[in-house]
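>> Question from a student workshop board

For tomorrow's exercise we were told to take the sequence and the ligand below, predict the bound structure, and bring the output to class. My setup keeps failing. Could a helper post the expected result so I can at least see what it should look like? The ligand is nicotinamide-adenine-dinucleotide.
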Amino acid sequence: MVALTEMVALEQRGDIALILVDNPPVNALSHGVRLGLLKGFEQVAADDSVKGVVLACRGRTFIAGADITEFGKPAKTPGLEEPQVAMENCPKPVVAAIHGTALGGGLEIAMCAHYRVGAPAARYGQPEVKLGLIPGAGGTQRLPRVTGVAKALEMCAIGDPIGSEEALATGLIDKIIEGDLIDGAVAYAEELVAAAAPLKKIRDRDEKIDEARADRSVFDAFRKRIARKTRNFEAPAKNVDLIEATLDVSFDEGIKQEQAAFQTLMAGRQSEAQRYYFFSEREAAKVPDIPRETPLRDVKSVGILGAGTMGGGIAMNFLNAGIPVKIVERDKDALDRGIDVVRKNYQRSAKSGRFTMEQVEERMSLLEPGTDKSVFGEVDMVIEAVFELMPLKKTIFAELDGIAREGAILATNTSALNVNEIAAVTKRPEDVIGTHFFSPANVMKLLEIVRAEKTAPDVLATTLKVAKAIGKVPAVVGVAPGFVGNRMLAQRGIEAETMIMEGAPPAQVDSVLYGFGMPMGPFAMSDLAGLDVGWDPDNTSSRTIREALCESGRRGQKNGRGYYTYDPETRAPTPDPEVLEIIRGFAEKRGVAHRDDITDEEILDRCLLPMANMGAKSLEEGKAMRSSDIDVVWVNGYGWPVYEGGPMFWAEGQGLDTVAAKITAYGAKLGGEHWELSPLIEKLASEGKSFQELEPQAIR
Ligand SMILES: NC(=O)c1ccc[n+]([C@@H]2O[C@H](COP(=O)([O-])OP(=O)(O)OC[C@H]3O[C@@H](n4cnc5c(N)ncnc54)[C@H](O)[C@@H]3O)[C@@H](O)[C@H]2O)c1
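>> Workshop helper replied:
Here is what the output should look like for this input. Compare the format with yours to find the bug.
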């Protein structure tokens, strides 16, 4: 065994040279790996005793991608192309032996081998699109030549990996190796040498491209298929264009186009935001004042109180993760209704092919419904999801205190109530925490974990682990009205409402936010949720526009009439003159002067600036640990477009000095607490600093 660099070694097994990458934890393509590969392939090419070559990796995976810590730094030679060329031009058959994941640059390296073999559980992918990029080392040009364009389009423009069976079926690998991968790959290389097998270079293969030339409709069909999901994103379309280019330009020209596009995307704002976001999600799970080695509590079973909209959805998360759930309602009817919804949700998933019926039954068998809270004495964690009423929550937590066993975690799903107050009714406030799921709770990724004043460190650490176990993206927040996310949403709501009173039609406000990349605007969202949520018909006097709309029989999508009128067949919304009349009447009563000159730019500013302002205030108050956590909340909980990073990243992109000046100017004109400039923004702007430069802080 010879060390070529500190990360790559060369070993000879008979006629076969073994080039072994060893760069834990994931064998990323760091400089030492690239250099080692280049040296290795140069050496084996020149060594007459070598007849064939195997490239493999030590540790838990094949090369799992680029070293993203090198992103944004000056490029260090060799890049990826030199070792790739050395490998592809090697005069002896090269076999890449893949286990774990061959992702991004890892797969692009593997595609320069003449043959590929994989362990049964290996996975192969070009996930660059998820970071706003394209595969920049030949992926868009080699992959369609080996798998055909249809699969390449999916792998590059959607970014989901495939497994060994599929890789074998599409031709991406030549063989699946059961048993020891390296031994199997060496034996395979020996066979290739013995058979004088051709050195198959993917770059020269044309047969699958020819098939696509005969029928180009696959590209437009694919573009249509991903249009809605990838709206406003630059990278997916670029991936499609480059794969289509394989039909029309030479391999070398295609590589040139790919490299140029890669540089453009890498230097662009979208990829910067997506890379920032990628790291933000990882950071969010770290709590600065809780050591990593904090011993965790065991959560092997869960109790949920309330089987309503949220309780049922929350239960599904645990059932999906194989964790048994005891769910308790106040009476049999409510219980049956709740369980029925869970079952129907699962059946719908089964129909769409996401689960088998057996999997549905398996999950349902983990669910134990009942109407007696005493069963919570047997679980490790109880999550309360009853009505949003403080006196009720207090009664329930006092009861739970008497029932739950010592050390059990007591969580509340409240969306806005004070968790300290709830905790205070128990004799164990250290065991109480907020777990704020988002609706629909079985779908939405975000979990705002509310760290109350007395929440014990191990309770928080355990809840973070639970979040991970059930596939949620956690963000730790402090006790504040609406916590982090809904508190910011409320600021946007105030301005959206004010602007429609001033004369901007709801459809204009919605279309600006939709255009920005939100899944829908605030008025479409209200219609979807139902205008009558929290509306009391016996105590209504047009105090808000929403109340006025309810009074005139408008309930939202559910009765086809809300801020919009909905087509009964297609549910397509159309603006309604009656709504504009109601708004105008309301504004007149309030003495709000009508304007015809509200621009889209003003709408965007007035919706987003107060959000960032409130985000900054949450930081000042110690209700969030880092600005990037706030962005995690908004991307996962509210559909903020990831290519805009999040509201705090967006504000930094505008320049905090510009943000400060605009907030001050709007505040002078419009007034209101939400326009009072956050001292933190003021300070950072005056120092020329950004939110991201702040150290993570403990929740207060
Ligand atoms: N719906 C949302 O979008 C959403 C989002 C996040 C958080 N939340 C919060 O989740 C909680 C539940 O909201 P929801 O939307 O599921 O409400 P819901 O009305 O759909 O469900 C509440 C359920 O609790 C049951 N319940 C009430 N009192 C009970 C008692 N004493 N014992 C047992 N069960 C009892 C009710 O029968 C009902 O089925 C609230 O605190 C709410 O603020 C809701």
